[in-house]
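Hi both,

Apologies for the delay on this - the queue was longer than expected. I finally got the flavin-adenine dinucleotide-bound model through. Below you'll find the protein sequence and the ligand SMILES exactly as submitted, and right after that the structure tokens for the full complex including the ligand.
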Amino acid sequence: LNEKFVVNRQVDVLIIGGGLTGASLLLALAHTGLRVLLVEQESWAQPLHAHDPRNIALAPASVRILEQLQLWPLLEPFATPVVDIHISEAGAFGSSVLNSPNHAPLGFVVEMHHIHQVLVSRVDPAKVLAPAQLIALDVDAQIAQVKTAEGVLHIEAALIVAADGSHSPTRRFCGLKPKVHDYAQQAIVSNITLARSHGGRAFERFLSEGVMAFLPLSAARAALIWTMPHAAVQAALSLDTLDFLNRLQQTFGYRLGRFIDATPRASFPLKQQWLPEPLYQSIIFVGNAAQTLHPVAGQGFNLGLRDVAMLAQCIVAHGLSDKMREAYKSARQTDKMQTLVFTDGLIRLFSSHMPGVSCLRRMGLLAFDKLPGVKPWFSRQAQGFGGIVPDLACGIPLRGCRKKLGN
Ligand SMILES: Cc1cc2nc3c(=O)[nH]c(=O)nc-3n(C[C@H](O)[C@H](O)[C@H](O)COP(=O)(O)OP(=O)(O)OC[C@H]3O[C@@H](n4cnc5c(N)ncnc54)[C@H](O)[C@@H]3O)c2cc1C
């Protein structure tokens, strides 16, 4: 931003992006007394993700956070509990069932458009500027240039939070390059109607060329995520519904009974991408802007929601200060790294064709049930309780905000 301009608006916290992460942060900061503004490039009146076919498996830690934000009662009617997870590999003997020792659900599956609708319904519209697109950023002056239907605005903020997703323009304006691992695969997503109930069981089946996962949904439906190399995607997308269901049934078998219908398929490219540092000067990156994961372990939004919970906690404890930024960075390090390693490790282990690795993973699936410590670690990680757990995920509410701008 080189030219002279007038600052049109000053806020304490400017959130760029109103996806699940940005909207959650706006709600988490609602009672802090801070002047918070969220800018979203899409229209807010026509809910984002209204046609998004993704389903989100919410980990128990996320459910606790959503309870503390008073959102869970609104989401629960749309949530299907996951009773256990069956993990297997095509063509191998070993399989394992992951369940909770106290029979509590391992998580809940909610269609993404329901989550976003609930978030939007609770947000104060006066705190949202949409459609409004971030088009430039003066990082030193902490001024964002935002294009709206009425013209270009300059917004000055003590703290800028980038929640603008995997392609984060904020990251680009800061000149930051994320580390990327491209899996050279895509995920095909569709909701499958079953001839019988799934009984709350989720499935992860590792195939020679990808992973097939089913998550339980309401009304005898299961959410499919099927990953495959780019070259195979077009063929799978172009099959008619009946041929697609036949192919699905042949590949997966009958553990879920007969597949009788499928919603239109969508595909998503698969990359793991992360910023080694979630901070850049006054800017904090959260959610997919900070890290994008392979969806097989269902961790992306869960991790983003823990970013939100910890950031709100640090802001309440330390105000908008350098201490807050440092506290946030160090509190989030372990959870992020463990989740990245856990998700990526799972994919690499099951996609390796190296001699010996296949044998090891078969033994691993068998031993998974037996080895002390392995299952609890896996469960803790998958449930969102790895690393330093945010207060909200422990059921502890945020205390009142000590408003303290600057250092
Ligand atoms: C197939 C699939 C299945 C998944 N399943 C799960 C699961 O089971 N559990 C789970 O936890 N996660 C899952 N995820 C991951 C989850 O969907 C994401 O982590 C989550 O939706 C990311 O939300 P976000 O708000 O960080 O980013 P986004 O949803 O990308 O939101 C970013 C927002 O920023 C806005 N924006 C971008 N640029 C600008 C700009 N210049 N100005 C203003 N606004 C801008 C965009 O319009 C958008 O609304 C899955 C992902 C995939 C692909």
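Main takeaway for now: The two ends are 25 Å apart (CA to CA).

I'll put the files on the shared drive as well.

H.
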